[in-house]
Every structure is written in structure tokens, then in C-alpha cells.
Amino acid sequence: MSNLLTISPSPHAKGKDTVKSLMGGVLLALAPAFLCSLYFFGLGALITTLVSVISCVLFEWLITKFILKQTPKLADLSAVLTGVLLAFNLPSNISPFIVMFGALIAIGVGKMSFGGLGQNPFNPALVGRVFLLISFPVQMTGAWPKPIESRWQYLDAVTGATPMSYSELGKVNMMDMFFGGVGGSLGEVAALALILGGIFLIVRKIITWHIPVSILVTVLIITSIAYLTDPEKFANPLYHLLGGGLLLGAIFMATDYVTSPMSDKGKLIYGFGIGLLTVIIRLWGSYPEGMSFAILIMNALTPIINKYVKPTRFGVVKTK
Amino acid sequence: MDNVIVISVLILGGIAILAALILYVIAKKFKVEEDPRIDLVAECLPGANCGGCGFAGCRNFAEACVKDFSGKVCTAGGNDVMKKVADVLGVQAETAEAKIAVVRCQGSNECRPKTNNYEGAKTCAIVAATYGGQTGCAFGCIGLGDCESVCQFGAIKVNEKTGLPEVNEEKCTGCGACVKACPKIVIELRKKAVKFRKVYVSCVNKDKGATAKKACSKACIGCGKCAKTCPFGAITVENNLAYIDFEKCKMCRKCVVECPTGAIREENFPPRKPKEEAPKQLNTSTGADKVETPKEPGKINLEKPSDNLLKE
Amino acid sequence: MAFKTFHKGGVHPADKKITAGASIQPLAIPATVSIPCAQHIGAPAEIIVQKGDKVKVGQLIAKANGFVSANIHSSVSGTVKNIGPVPDASGYTKQAVIIQVEGDEWEETIDRTPDIKRNIDDLKPEEIINKVHDAGIVGMGGATFPTKVKLSVPLGKKAEAVIINAVECEPYLTADHRVMLEKGDELMIGTQLIMKAVNCENAYIGIEANKPDAIKYLTELSSKYPGIKVVPLQLKYPQGSEKHLIAAVTGREVPSGRLPIDVGAVVDNAGTAVAIYEAVMKNKPLFERVVTVTGDSVKNPGNFLVRIGTPISALIEAVGGLPEDTEKIISGGPMMGKAVTTLDIPVAKGTSGVLMLSKDLAHRGEAENCIRCGKCVDACPMGLEPYLLSAYAQRKNFEELENNHVTDCIECGCCVFSCPSNRPILDFVRFGKQSVMKIIRSRKK
Predict the structure, then answer these.
(1) Which end of chain A has fewer CB within 10 Å, C or N?
(2) Pairing of strands C54-55, C78-87
């Protein structure tokens, strides 16, 4: 034995999860949705995603290296994931400069200004998205490229309205919403692909079911009540479930580790809050889409949830 | 149109006045009466919140001083600060002996070879709770810098080359935070002498001589030669370890010459006259040079104290 | 079969029971043994022999010192060569009796015949407990709590179920597994003795699903022993934790800060039950135990019957020497065992295994930022929040640590196992727990 023995406190065994494998798993789960968006939006989807990912990675590298003066840790894939999620929340015909700007805000303001991975209170991709939504409302929501028709165009894509603008509601086929083919952000195009990704995440134990299920159930219940009271005024709850960024948000954005609560009970409360806020914004707010805001607001409440909602300890419920 | 403006102004103005009133009432009603002297005393203190005085922070200490001054000492600030505090409070200051932290271990990477690789959390406290440490000596410095991280004055730093902490004597206030943080009680507060001179046993190993020597070439082997040499009875040997009582020590440095392993160190003395320079002494000073060559003027490293006293 | 388990947290480490099929081999007696006098939780035993004394196998050499303490017997015959400090698995040196081996002469009182003695009817509970005390029996699963204390049911408490812990949820270890297969009758009679000592009619033997042969064999055997039932359990770490085993078998949770007897349970390890049988029926004190010696690259891993005090280097030789790529040696299992610094460490009563980890398994990954994934919270079988406790401990915020029940931590290591960022969570939590315990103790004084 030439080497000195290694000593460390127990345990001496380690599970297979690493930050990289978890982030990679999420990316893999996003793959079906990405393929769908490639199919429906073609060139625009490809360029937007690439620009977003490359700028996120680049900005993270630059900021870590030259501003924070630390060794950049790009291998954990978290910057790539932020880039993909940001792109999935943008229309495919958006200018690449706007995407780069969004990436700078997402990484620079949303993530690195708080100290990098694990320290950010808000989901970086959503910070970038909301920033763009407020700064460039026309480009962000004005004209959505029409799926398939605009496959080979980029900035000059044929455009149409998103189903979340109510004037268009009713004209949309629900099967299209499920299998894809309705205009919208890159990642929102096919509900099925997102659901598949979500099932993968839950089966691989990358996320637990609590957050997506509680969001979807909350939205379903409240919109159903609204629909039943006044079908003329309110849309079919299924539109709410399948439309807009709800599934993307519930499965991929709200479940972001850093910004969601730790305990199962906390996750349920968090999911309920997101569902409730989303419905309120959608039904009574001035934005057609409320998911981003709802998630950001609940992100802000996460520390409080963590503080007051504790897991049930062993031996506390039952005594003899 | 005018109407709208007038109404807005009235409403907003009204709200502002109402809010101001509420704030005023609350401020008056819940005002905390505080002795103004607390602020004055707090201003005299170093403000490092080192905890050396036994209170949570400087302000707590100030409050305690205002209540009852006697017996309280700001260890970090020393007599100067306490005199100022006494002036503020209009009482007589008591003088306390100035102390300085001394690291009683010479187990540098060179003298004390590693016997295993530690891979756990990098704090001394956790190593001490886990096992005897990365070398054959289970008593000495662990070298992960718990002392460095508690020092509010930047006075103690682990030298990466030797793996041992070094005290900057100019900066050290003798607050004792490092002494409390050290899980092995390697650091001791010793009397601050003229020009920071000190003579002390720089080892805390209580193993038998052979075991100690095997683990570290600079270990105290408890041979007792120093105790026999000391003309003032300042040295005691207990559990295979010598200790120099700094109250009795007159710094004659006879023990330093006598020590076979170089465990006893002298610091900040002018060089000895050549005739005294016995081979053993040479030994010591080379060891000293390795460990604590001052790189800049005024930045001198201290070494390791031993301390049965603290433990008892 | 509906396998039972506990319902909070837990992880599934790869179980790697390489030695499950290796029958127990007696290990040759070494030339010298060092028997530490602190092999149990509680006060170290008081050494009653002197340098130069002749001792026999099974002779008392150190006496229990207080209620929570245990007798220690010589495991060999020979001359006491020295009494002094030797390093043990704790990483510190402890006082030990070092004996030069001469022959193998046992105390005459020990029944060395292979016959199985079944008649326990004439024994009184106190007799059993006294014999267990005299034989120096401690929990052999690793916690080494003196068994006598467990068997002494406090006034006003009633034992409703004896649970034999045959879970062995640590990966690699198979010592208990082999004991069950090879000493089934002894285990059953030992269990009956425990039932008698604590005056209880029901006993359950909890075995995890990865030992189907043991489940089958003991289930068949248990038909001959009324009151004893085998309970198959799902594979989940840390089911061998006393509290979690009780929860899995009975559905009762031991409240925070209480003892198993507070929910009417008495839990003993399978190896301990066999030791109790041997002590009571055969007059044989605890001076040898079964140790699994294993590792992925070990040539001939196996299970050995080892005299207490044998250096682990002798065990490593018995399996074909230390593999070249070994970088970490663990006394115990990989989840809760202690990494050792030298091969001179003696086998003690609580040494269930010696595990040699090769380079790829020996090291921790580099710690990264906490990504707040909550996996440690999901994994914690005590329902604590390890990420939070670890952060508080790092900041030495002992008050918040206590408020967040750090003292409930069983140090099972599930949090570190599940952490994707390789954070040393348990290192800090353990430090925090020890500090808080100290504070609590000093408050009581």
C-alpha cells in the first residue's frame, strides 16, 4: 500500500445523483418539447434556442471569470438549462438581440448577482422572460408565428394570435393544443411533449409530483368553477390547462430546485399558490398569461414557506 | 378637471398627514428609554464584536459596563480602551495584564509527516470529532484554520507552507477567540512581554516520549531536562509534557538550549553571542527559522504554546 | 408477499452482499491480541489484570464500571504483555490489554460441545440478565449498547414485543446473514431467552428481502418456537436503525428523545441473540464474533469467526491481502462505519465488518453549491431538514440547531448519500449535534 489511507466521516457511499446528472435529466425531459417546436417552428426555434443557450453559457462564463473571479463551473449544465428554458418562453420569430439581452438579464441579474447556482431567489429564465415581456411587449406578445406555415422563415414568419388572447378562443381545436400546432412560445407548442417530459422527470425521481400536480389541480378546480358559473364569459378549463405556458411552467419552471420549497407540504402550498395566482391573472388581470408572474411571486414566498412549513418529524404524530 | 386635481391632492395629503400622525404617536408611545452613556461607552470600544469579554458583542459589553463597571475587561482593547470607558463613566479603571495568543505546535508538514489523508469537511472542530488527525500526533494543530476564521483582527493566519497558524503580534489583541475555537487547545494566551519576547514549550503532545518523537521531530518528549535546568522553578512536566509558567519565567532561556528536540522556543530575542551557540541551540534556531521567518518587518509569527493550565 | 417497511425517507444504496454465500470460517488465533477496555457505549471497563498475569480464554480481564458499561474477557490464553494505549476504530488511542498468545486454553466452565441446549424453563429472568451482564454482551450491530441495560425493563414499563434486528441494511455486510443461516436454533433459543428476560410473549425477527434464504429457513424453523415470527421487510436503508425497525415491524414510532421500551419494544441484534444463547446456556462470554471482510477488489472475501482483539491486518491477510488499489479501509459498513488510519486496529465487540474500498469508491466528490433540491429532506428518515441543520452548524448557531431538533439525528448518512452536490452535510450536522448535546448536558447540571 503505497498511498496513505483516506479518512472521512461516514457515510462512505454515495448515490448516483450529481448536479450534472439532474440538470442533464431535465434537459433530456425537454427534448420532446424541443423536437416539437423544431417541427412546428423550424428555423426560428433552432436559432432562438441556440442563441439563448450560447449567450447564457457565455455570460455565465464571463461573469464568473471576470467579475466574480472564480473558476467557472459550466459543466453542471445549469446555464444550458436556463438558456433552453428562456428560449422556450419566447416566440420563435424574436430578434436574436432581444434573446441575448434576455439571457444577460437571466444570468447576470437573475442568477449571478445573487452568487450563482443555488443562491438565486427567482427562477433566472423567468426573470429574463418577464424582463423582456415588460421591455418589449410588442415583440414578445404582438405576433406569434403560425406553426408549420412559418417553418422555414425566421424573423419574417407568418404570424397569428395565441389562444390565450380571448378573442381567438373557441376557434382553436383542443386536439391541436394537445398534440401541437397552436401558435405560442417555443416550448408551449405541444402539451403532450411536455407531459411526457414531466412523466420522465417524476419516474427518474428528478422532481416529485407535488408541485406540478398541485398547480394543475388548483387551476383545473378554479377554472371549472368559473366556467360552470358563466360559460359565456370564462373559457373551458381544458383550455387553461393545455394553453399558454401552464404545463411548461408547472413541470419545468416551477419545479426549479433552487426556488421551490424543500418539504413536500411546502411544495403543495407553493403549487397551490402558483395555480391560484395564475388563474387570477388570467381571468381578471390585464395579461393573458399569468404563469410567469405567478411563479415569480411564489418564488419570493419560498423562503417563508421553508421557514414555517417543516416536514413531519419521525415519532411526532403517533405516540403510544 | 380642476376638481379631480383638488380631490387627489386632498386625499393623498390627508393620507400623508394621517400616516405621519400614526407614526408620531407610535414613536412616542413605544420609545425605548436608554442610558445615553451606553452609546458613549460603545464608541470607545473596538467594535469588533470578538466576544473576548464574555459578552455577545461590544454593545452588550457597553450595557453591562454602564450597569456595573467593576471586573469587566475589554480583552481586545486592553487597558487603553478600559481607561477611556472608565473616564466616560467617571470611575477608576482597573489595569489588566496584556496577553497575546501563542500557538504551541511546531508540527509543520516537514517535522510531522502525514499518516493519512483527510477528506471530510474542512474545519478543525469536525476533524477533532472524527479522529486523531492526519498525523501520528493526536494532540497538535490540525491546521484547517478554525482560529483564523474566528479572529476579528486578522491577527492569526495559517501559513500554507507549514500548515500551522501564525500570530501577527502587532495585530493580536489577546481577546482569546482563537483559544476558544481551537478544539485541540493548542493556542494559549501568554503574558505579553517587552518586544513580544517569549519562551515557551511549543508542543502539546502527551504521548510517551518515543511515540511523540515518532510522530513529530519537534515534539516534547517529557524528558524533564528543562525542568531541572530552570533556576526559577517555572517548568513543570506532567503527562510527558513540559509547561513553562509565564508568571515565573524570567526568560533566561537556559531551557531552550537544554531541550533535545527543540520543543522549547524563544522568540524575538536578539541573536545570542557566538560562544553560547551550542549545536543544540543551532538546531532550535534553524527550526525556528523554518517555521517563522518574518517576511516583512513588524509581521512576526508566533508559535505554539502548551497549556496544562488552561485544561486544569 | 407484502413486505413491511417504515414510511419516512430512506435511500437504496447498492447492496453488494458479495459474501452472502461464504460460510463462517474460524480465523487463526494471532500471536498477540490487544483488547481495548472501551468497546461499548458508556464508561470504559476497569482493567483487573496486571502485566505478566497468565490468562485463559474467557477469563474476565476488565470489569464493568457503572450501570452503562460491560465486562471484558480475554479472547485468548497467554500472558499479559502490556497494558497501554492502542489506536482503535475511533481514531484515538484507548487503554487496552495486550496479550501474548500461548496455546488455546479455555476456562473450564465454558461448554465447548456443539450440542444445542434447549431447556430454558428453569431459568429466571434475573438469572438470564445476570449472565448476560457477566458475559459482557453488548449490541453487536455496531452501536455496542450494553445488552443488560436493554433487558432490564424499567418499573412501570411493559415489553410487548421483542424484535430481533436481522435487517443488516448496511451494504456489503453479511455477518448476521450467515449467523442466521448457520446458527438458526441458537438464534431462536437466544430470542426465547430475551422474551423470558423481559417477560414478553411475542417476538419478531425482521429480515430484509435481499436475504430470501434466511427468511425461508427461519420461517420454517420458527414453527418450532411458539411466539416467534419472521417479518420480511422491504429493502430500504436505514431499516436496521432501532427506531425504524420498530416502525417497520409494529407501525409504532418511538417519540423523539424516548427509548424503544416507551412503545413496548425491546430490540436486539441477531448476533447478540446468539451471544445471549451462548452466554446463558453455554457459559461462554463474548470474546469472539463474526466479521465480514470484503471489498470489490478483495481476492477471497468472506465471513470469519474472529477473537476480539485480533488486529484487522490478520483479517485482511485471510482474504488474500490488501488489494493494490485500496485507498480507504472501513471498520463497519459503508454508510455508518468508521474509516481507519492503520491496520493495527483490533476487532472489537461492535466490529461487524472490515471493508476495503478501492480508489473509485474511496473518495468524496468535490463539494459544490447547495442547489436546494431538497433531496436530503426527502431522504431523511427522521423527518429533519439536513440542509438547514448543516448550514446552522456551519455558522455555530446552536440555538436554532436545537430548535430544529438536531438531537433527533441518527447519523445514518442518507442526506449525504442523496446529495447531488457532494456536500459534507452530515459532517456539520454531527458536529452540531455533539455541540448541542454538550450544551443540553451542561444545562442539566
Answers:
(1) C
(2) antiparallel
* Helix, strand, or coil (residue A46): helix
Tell whether A7 is within 8 A of chain B (Cβ). yes
Chain A CB contacts of C14 below 8 Å:
13
d(CA C443, CA C440): 5
Interface residue C227 vs chain B (CB under 8 A):
no
In angstroms, rounded to a whole number, what is the distance separating the alpha carbons of residues C244 and C261? 14
pTM of the model: 0.85
B279, B151: one domain: yes
CB B73 within 8 A of CB B82: yes
Q: Do C424 and B120 touch (CB under 8 A)?
A: yes
In the structure grid, which three cell numbers stand for residue A303, read together?
423562503
pLDDT in tens, B241-296: 999 998 899 888 989 999 999 999 998 888 877 654 444 444 444 444 444 444 44
Q: What is the torsional sign of CA A25, A29, A35, A41? A: negative
Q: Do the Cβ atoms of C247 and A314 come within 8 Å?
A: yes
Strands, E assignment, C142-272: 161-166, 203-208, 228-233, 265-269
Report pLDDT digits (tens) over A147-192: 666 666 666 655 655 555 544 555 566 666 676 666 677 777 788 8
Walking along chain A (320 residues) 10 residues at a time, the average pLDDT comes out as 79 91 94 88 88 94 89 86 93 89 94 89 93 86 67 62 51 65 74 91 93 95 90 80 84 93 94 94 80 93 93 70
Assess whether the previous peptide bond of C301 is cis (omega < 30° from 0). Answer: no
Residues A259 and A265 sit within 8 Å (Cβ to Cβ): no
Sign, CA dihedral B122-B124-B125-B130, equals: positive
pLDDT at A243: 75
Q: How far is CA B86 from the centre of its chain?
A: 25
Number of domains in chain C: 3
The answer to whether residue B10 is domain-embedded is: no
Alpha carbons within 13 A on the beta-carbon side of A43: 12
> Which of B102, B108, B99, B87 shows the shortest CA–CA distance to B41?
B87
The boundaries of the domain holding residue C346 are 1-24+116-363
| Together in a domain, C298 and C430 | no
Q: How far apart are CA C160 and CA C183, in angstroms?
A: 26
Q: Which of chain C's residues have a Cβ under 8 Å away from the Cβ of A19?
A: 368, 371, 420-421
Distances (CA, A) of B279 to A120, A286, B203, B262: 62, 90, 21, 11
The complex's ipTM works out to: 0.87
Contact of B138 with chain C, judged by CB distance below 8 Å, is answered with yes
Residue with cell 516520549: B209
- B51 is in which domain, residue-wise? 36-89
Interface contact B121, partner C, CB < 8 A: yes
Residue in C11, C256, C421 nearest the CB of A315: C256
CA distances from A231 to A223, A228, C330, C371 (A): 10, 6, 68, 44
Q: Chain C: give the shortest CA distance to residue A1, in Å.
A: 6
Cβ pair C385:A15 closer than 8 A: no
Q: Does B286 touch chain C (CB under 8 A)?
A: no
Q: Could you give all domains of chain A from N- to C-terminal order, each with its CATH number?
A: 19-308 (1.10.3430)
**What residue type is A156 in one-letter code?**
D
Domain membership flag for residue C251: yes
CATH for C50: 2.40.50
Largest Cα–Cα distance of chain C, in whole Å? 63
Whether C316 and C293 have beta carbons less than 8 Å apart is answered as: yes
Residues 126-185 (B) with a CB less than 8 A from some CB of A: 126, 130-131, 134
Whether the CB of B251 is below 8 Å from some CB of chain C: the reply is no
- Does residue C124 lie within any of the structural domains? yes
Compute the nearest-CA separation of B157 from chain C (Å).
20
